[in-house]
Amino acid sequence: MDIARIAAANLVILRGGGGGRALLLPSLSKCWFARSVPLLPRTTIACTNPNVRLSIRRSTFCTSASGDAADGQQQQQQQEAVSVSESQIKEAADMLDIRVGVILKAWRHEEADSLYVEEVNVGEAEPRVICSGLVNYIPLDHLQDSKVLVLANLKPRNMRGVKSSGMLMAASDASHDNVELLSPPEGSIPGERIWFGHEHDNQNQPPPATPNQIQKKKIWELVKPHLKTDESCIAMLGDHQYVMRTSAGLVRSPSLKNAAIS
After folding, report:
1. What CA–CA distance (Å, rounded) separates 253 from 233?
2. In sequence order, what are the residues at sequence separation of 6 or more whose Cβ sits closer than 8 angstroms to the Cβ of residue 200?
3. Measured distance CA(159)–CA(111) in Å, rounded
4. Which pLDDT tens digit goes with each residue over 124-166?
5. In Å, what is the CA distance from 82 to each residue of 85, 232, 239?
6. Which of 165, 103, 188, 167 is nearest to 139 (CA)?
7. pTM of the complete model
8. Cα separation, 249 vs 227, whole angstroms
9. Cα torsion 49, 51, 166, 190: sign
10. Over 90: is that where the pLDDT of 19 sits?
């Protein structure tokens, strides 16, 4: 069993060999004690912040069964660790700047067959230019004047000669044969920032992270695996309590259920 003391960690990953569950703990502002977290054999502890000091106290770890009471205690400890991880993932998601946008103009990228280029109104003085790999999934004429969701605090990327300043958010099925852009509800205003949770949770929404913070702390990489649609095509983070919202209602995929969002 390992007990880890973590100071100002951006991301800590506990990996258990032999199919163990990973524990992700991002962006902690002060010391945190992982109290009695059970680890599997060949477990490694890694932190992406080079300035973080990890102090590990190791005691004997027994791989053989020691009775139902010990097994129950271990399962409870694992559940507590996962619960902490979910809370930290929610905090990371709250640092994303996901906005309602309207596609003003779209065309095929001249140097990349799989890319569209869009000008998108996200509530700023000038529209953003965004490249998206949607050519094989969405007809060009379906993009014009569409309301979309834009992840707006990614660092700009040069995509075959075009500077792309954001990402259109879409749902896709497991085979990635079907892809749909997420749709904000009717009445959503371009530039409005979405949030995850209940109707009035936006009142406590923190300011978004800067693009440099998003990249350095790998915030998008942490949150992305937990974004999905449910049986009703509603976009959400994790379980049903963290649905994706604007002031006008819930964000949805037009038809894809239980789909990944990226």
Report:
1. 5
2. none
3. 9
4. 999 999 999 999 999 999 999 999 999 999 999 999 999 999 9
5. 5, 26, 13
6. 103
7. 0.69
8. 18
9. positive
10. no
List b or e across 17-31, with b for residues whose CB sees 16 or more CB atoms inside 10 angstroms: eeebeebbbbbbeee
Q: What is the CA radius of gyration of the chain?
A: 21
Alpha-carbon separation of residue 236 from 59, 71, 78 (angstroms): 40, 33, 24
pLDDT in tens, 37-83: 444 444 444 444 555 444 433 333 333 334 455 456 556 544 544 44
Q: What does the pLDDT read at residue 85? A: 77
Burial status of residue 58 (CB atoms within 10 A of its CB: 0-12, 13-18, 19 or more): exposed
Among 157, 229, 150, smallest CA distance to 193 is for 150
pLDDT digits (tens, 9 = 90+) for 164-208: 999 999 999 999 999 999 999 999 999 999 999 999 999 999 999
